[in-house]
Each structure stands twice: as structure tokens, then as C-alpha cells.
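Re: [help] complex structure
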Amino acid sequence: MSVIFDNPVQPVLRMPVDPDRWQRSASISDAAIRWRIYLHQIGLAALIPWFQEEFDCPVLPFPHAAPFDIWHVVEGLALQLGEKRIVIMLSEAIDAASLEVPQEWVDLPTWRADYYIGAYVEIDEQRLVLWGYTTHDRLKTDGDYSQTRRTYSLSDTELIQDFSVFWVAQQVEQTSTQPVEPLLELPPAQIEQLLQRVIDTPEPRLALPFDHWGTLLTSEHWRQQLYQQRQTPRLVSIGDWLEQIFEYGWQSMDSLAPEATAFNFRSAASGAAVLTCGKKIFLNTAPDDLLLMFSVDIETDKRRNIRIQLYPSGEALLPSDVVLGLELSETGELLKQVRAGNQDNYIQIPPFRCSAGQRLRVHIQLDNSICQEDFIS
Amino acid sequence: MHSRTDVLTIFSTYIQFSGDRFDRWISDPRLARSMQQELLKHDGAERSDTFWALYWYRQQSHHPNATHHLWAYLQEPCYWASEQVARRFSMVQYSLADGFQIAIANVDRILRGYDPDVGSNLRAYAHRAFGNCIRDQLRQQHEVNISSDWGLLRRLSQIQLTRALLTAGFIETAPYILIWQCFRAVCVPQLDRPVRGLSAPSDRQYAAISERYNQRRHQLTSNTTTVGTQDINTYQLVTELTRLATIARNYLNPTITSLNQPQYDDSSEEQLNALTMDENPMAQLLAAEDYTQQQQYAKQIGEVLENALLDLDPPSQKLLSLYYQDTYTQTDIADQLDIQQYQVSRKLKRIRQQLLLSCFNWCQETLHILPESAILANVGEVIHEWLQYHYSQEPPEVSE
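Output below.
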């Protein structure tokens, strides 16, 4: 019905609902974050083909196809269009009165974009409408900066609404960009402290000074840490793995370590394990990433045989004294713990049997740095 | 409606409606006097309304009545834009007079958005901009009308809610904005039901909202400011959220009152008298030159476009002519050209992009303008205006 009121120069894109995607995000416990990530996903799925059709150069999501670790704290879809970067802000609001862009997309040197596009989404109509755009220069010089929200805004009258213009601008415009402050260099221990400060706050992006926040956010390691630690409970579901659905950071053995034999990895049971899955673990006290491996044998629908192992990822040996532990999630009761010696190339929790649906927690610790993974068998 | 023909009335009269119909032109004596003075200063030269539109546009920050003259001038494009929307969307509850009132309230925005530097014509620009304002407003009102209170709260923008609160007389908006933000953080849409029909929060959600509010309030309060005076409980929350929905709905569905005249402040009268005023012949020369140049750009771009049109294949030419006659819907056009409806806008877009690129290349060579989005947008405007003018001049024969 509302189609009839469209402005003819604004592109209207189809944005179908995607129940599968929605279902897959069920492990995200915060409803607003789950919704925001879902919205960005379906928005991205609608936008990529449109841009690809419109522009000759390759269109790629930035920094990669599923930056949940960004979306859970900062709104905005980033695309790399050849040399140019574009940030699209999705709004569910009925009005298209202003374009509001988080400071991160404007002032962080590695994140800032050449163009910013406002889009309103009509979930019920399953469509997305691009209603105006601006350049970095304009947003930075004419935009209204809000201290409390840390955003730059431009009102609709200051945006260009004709997307034919955008298309031509892509080809002829030299986007000169306003200088932005370089990133702050901080020692890992300090970033770790910053991270701890924002794990439980409702609006982490507003809880630290912007330069500190920017340093934390632009590092992939720390960004992932933030995402994982803010997800409570961060449940990894073995049931999902069976359906080839992997939680963030988890990958099947094949994609994680193509030459699995290099890890001297053997299956838990005498036959081949049904499922081997792993994840890179980052501890700031360890010189390199570690590799946490699960090997699961599905004995029946209801019973699993699980073995948990920890490998070095680049080095030949594990850092000595790194600890791998298993406990019950609900009570914290320690079930088993192993510690690496000087010469260990891996350590493991010996295979154990448990029923499906058991909630367990694995922790990996080296000195005062710790990482936890909650899972449900 | 009968159009005004002489420059004096064009820049000094307002439309009077009787019910939903045009009644007559009402003269504003003050504007008439002011216009007469200006005409005297330019005596001997018969100037068109386009000249005067540009003149007053340039005078906005120098002459106290300039904006009011433009306001009078823009009555007609506003009327026709509204008439066009009413005709096209006849199935919608909407009257011409309503549309006129919606649109005329946007004169300031339109003057801010207009830029005459590459030959754009204010009347044509305003006609399209008024049309967009009305369409956008109708779309919003439609959405507001079919949304539940909760769906409406979900789909408000913070700007709208803030304006609604201020309009309703609230001075301290921060606590209400925070309540609303917490509501939005907790009550997200469900995939199996429309957002506009969002249902009331459950008890668990109410509890989550108030918990979040109290937590955020303390967090914000620590930084020199205070938000709200006390924590909120679930009972109060229900009351406040319901109130917010009502305030927003009232704000977004205003009873349209007549706004069709700029408010004078009395001081401007004296300024005007004191301002009888620079008889500077140089200024008049400059104004004339400004106008000549604008007309020249418009003419030259017209020639570029004329040639660019000749390069288009016949189906593209036909598509343009059907579209810019403004009487066909996209479905009609699709039928006539035997293509799918979605292809209409896509093809149209491609043609426009092509025209824009040719025009821009010409502008860059001839006018040495910079390749910037803002300037490109102005060129884009001129193209729209030219196409509209071009096709309304020579209605093509439509076969079939």
C-alpha cells in the first residue's frame, strides 16, 4: 500500500524475512542485540546484490560478511565498493528525518567511510528504502555531533536524495576526507582492563573515552573477546554442530586446520569421531593463539562421548602451565583439570560420556588471563 | 484555480481556500507595497517572474520581506503539487487543501535545499520538493494510523519523540527518552507477526524494562547530570509508556490548521520604511547579470540534454516521455512498453544516470565546476526540471 507514496529517485530494495537466520541467532540472549544482528544480516543480504548490479567494481562487506562482533555494540553496515567505503545506517523509524551515524564510522581511521547512506526498513512490507546519502566531508563538517550519543547527524534537507547522483559521484568524485585522529596505542594489559570495565554495561560504546574504546574496537582480537564475554550465557550447542551450525569462532576441523594430522589428532573412540570442531583461543599472556578442539562421538540420540583437547596453533609446544579445566556450568563444580608441562604439544580432558543437554564449561587459563566456553552437550 | 499573471500579484498574494477548493487570491498590502517599490527601482525593464524569484532568493538575508515574497511566489507550485498528489492518489483520504497546508509548511526547508547556481528554476524545484513532502507525510500518517500503540512506539525515531514531547509542553525530556530507549531494547519484533501490530509487553518484559531503566539512570546520573528523580516500578512504567504513545500519536496526527502565511514580526515594518533604500544601479546590474547567467546555463544544459536525448534508443525516449508527462503510473507505463513494472524504475534510473553523466561532463568542461556530490545533485535537479518542461511542452503521440 505505501509503495504508492514512494519518491521516484529513491531505490526500493526487497528485504525478505529469513526465519532460518532468525532461528540460528537464538543463542543470543539479549533480545535487542539478537534483533539488531538479524536486521543487519537481512539488510546486508538485500544490499549486496543491489550494489553489485549497480556498480562494476566488486562489492564486499567490511570487514567481513558477518561482523556480529561489531553489530552487537555499533550499528551500521559497511561495504567496500572498489576503493570506496560506504556505511549504510538502517532505521526502523517511520520518519526519515535525519541520518545519524555512530562516531566509530566517522572518526576511527581504519573504519571511516567515503559515503554514508540512510535507509529506512519496513519490516512488514519486507523492503528497504535508500533515502539519502552524504560524504565524509559533509558529515564531519556540517554534521551535528551529539556528545551523549556519540553520533554525527545530518537532517534530511542536507542529504542528497537522488541516487542517480550517487552513481555518477562514484565515478567522478574525488572524496577528499577530513583528517581524523590516529588510533591510540595501548598495552594489552590496559586493553584487558578496559574490556573488563565494559563487559556488563548496557551501552559499552559510551562507557569508555572514545579513543580508548576505538583502540579496543578496531583490534580484531579484542573485539571478539568483547563479543564473547558480553554474551551471557554464551552457549555453544553441540546439537547445532550436528546441523552444521557453528557459533561464532567455532569451525569444523577441516576449515580450522586443513592438515589435521599435523596436530596428531586422533578420534576419541576407536572408530572415526562423528564430529570434530575447534576454535582459536586468545589469551593475552600466551605468545600465540591456542586451539581448543572438541571431538564428539554421538553414541545414540541421547548420549555423547566427548574429548576436549588444547593445542598450540603456531608453536610446536604449549606454553607451560597453561590449564585446561572442565566444570559444571550451574554449580561451578570442577570435574577435571589438566596443566601443561614444559614439553607438552597438547593436553586433554580424557574422553567422558554424558547425556545430551548437559551444560558444561571449559576454561583455559594462563597466569591471570582466562577464557571460558560454555556449552551444552 | 486561475493563475496570477502580473509580477506584482505573483509576489504579494496568498491563496484563500473555501473548504477544499480554491477561493481567491488575497493580497497582502505590505508585500504589495514592497514589491511596487522594487518594481519602480527596476523601471523600464520588464522582468519575468523567474527573474524576480531569483532576485528575492538572493535578497533573503538582505531584505526583510524577501522570504515573504518567495512565500507568495511559491503558492502556485505548492497548489499544483498538492493537486497532482490528490489526483494520483485519489483512493487515499486526503484533500487538496490538506496537502497544500502540509506542503506550504515546508517553504523554509525548500528554500534551504534550493541552489540556483547551475540554472535550476525555483518554481520547478519547489513543485517537485512540495510533492515529495506531501507524499512522505502521507506515507507517515498512513503508517501511524495502522500501527498499534506499541508498534508506534517501536517505530518512532528519537527525534520525533523528542519533538512530540516538546510540543506537548515537556521541558525535561531525558527520563522519557530513556524509558522509551529501554522499551525498544526489550520489546523487539517477532518474526511471525507484523511490527505495526506489536503487542503489549509481557510482565517479564515490563520488569526487564524497568530494571534496565533504573540501571541506565544510575549510570547516566554519575556523569554530572541527573536523569529522572527516582527509580521506576512496573506500574508507573505502564502508565508512562501509554502516555508516550498518546503524545506521539497526537503529534504525528495533527489537526491541520491554516498556516498559509508567514508570521510577521512587527519590527520588520519599520525596517522596511527605513530601508527605502539603495538605489544603487550597480546592484540592479548585478541582479540582471545573475539572472542572465542563470538563464544561459539553463539554456546550454538544455541543448546538451537535447542532444543526449537524440542518442537514446526509441524505447528509452518513449519511457521518458510517458514518465515525465506525469499522468501515467508505473503500471501504465509498464503496460504500454510491454515490460515488467520493476523494470520501469530500473530503466528510468539508467537513463537518468546516463543523462546526468553527459551533463556533468559538459558542466565540468565549460563551467569548470568541481566533481562533488552536492554540485552533481544540482545538475541532477536541472535535468529533472528540463525533462519535465520538455515533455509537458510537446506531448508525444501515444500509440496503442
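The CA atoms of residues 180 and 213 of chain A lie 15 Å apart.
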